[in-house]
Amino acid sequence: MATLHSTQSFETGQTLTASALTNHVVDATPLPDFIAGQDPLTTPATADQLMINDVDGGVSAGEGKVKKITIANLAGNLPATTVASLTVNGNATVSGTLTNVGGITTSGVTVSADVSVGGLFTASGTSILGGDVTLGNSGYDVTFSGPLAGTIEGTPTINLTSVGDAAGDAFLLKDASDSNKLKTAVGCLPKAWACISTKTADTTTVAATVSRTAGSTTATVTYNAHGFKVGDVIYLDNGVAGGWYDIKTVPDANTFTITTIATTALSSVATQWYALTVNGSGVSSAFKKSTTDNTTQINFSNAMANTNYAVIATFSRDDGVAYGATCCNVIGETNFDKTTGSFSITTNYTSTPKSDGSIMFTVFGDLA
Known about the structure:
Blueprint: E1 4-5, H1 18-26, E2 29-30, H2 32-36, E3 49-54, E4 65-70, H3 71-76, E5 97-98, E6 109-112, E7 114-117, E8 121-129, E9 140-144, E10 170-175, E11 181-186, E12 190-197, E13 204-212, E14 218-222, E15 233-236, E16 243-246, E17 249-252, E18 255-259, E19 266-276, E20 278-281, E21 283-288, E22 295-300, E23 309-318, E24 323-331, E25 342-347, E26 357-365
Parallel strand pairs: 5-7
Antiparallel strand pairs: 1-2, 3-4, 6-8, 7-8, 8-9, 10-11, 12-20, 12-26, 13-14, 13-19, 14-18, 15-16, 17-18, 19-21, 21-22, 22-25, 23-24, 23-26, 24-25
């Protein structure tokens, strides 16, 4: 069976000229049987070579030229191809970026690639795309790049990291007044909350020492593992003039400094403050002026971001008969900033057992 074909033909008895013989060889092309008759190669290597008709690099316009190419070079330089539809039978692997996926009518397609769905959102990782371009329950990261025209349905799993509240934090809300669109609301998150007992029995008298160099207004207070930070406010009694002091510096875990008016020398003179137990979040400490005073000083764990804040506070008194709730007022002081690091709450009633009760309060920040 012939394996070559030539444009030249010869009759019996015809004189064979050199040019005809040359044309017969030059014009000869292999027939399919030429390839079919070769030994099969089931596992080609990347360096193996193929013959290819280079239609753009021919000897003249419109003519091809046979060239060689390796399998690796062929695979790495395939031309871009766009198809109107693609039917896949069996398993297929999609790598790179799959864009403009729409109109999927099967029960689900697993894509191990970055996927862009109609320019609306992208999914990174292994994603399951179902009918109507919905996302299944596999592990994927979705980034929305445009407004959602439809609804979000199903039961997607959302894993979020727990973080502390900070300025600018916002809730994700459904706005029923605007076609149930998702929106953010800033300023709704509580920045601090606590329930603080003001009962005399729950007030701890803390003993410490205070020292001051003659002529200086800086006094150093020593108390092991004091837990204070710069800006905290406490009421000091004895050793220095009784009053509220904001902490200026914290040299180490056992000392902190305050600013005093007097400049006389002090050497490890006894002083004290009155600490309350804090049960809550966002509050580092709370103090009283005395065991029977009805003013409570509260220090934030973190300073407020700005001066926009609101406080909801309720004092419950226990006079042995019943609890009665009364509003509390936030009062200002001149020697420290109540809006950024701390504030005071004073009950506005004068019943005898004014120190027997507790304060429940919540601080909201970043309110416009």
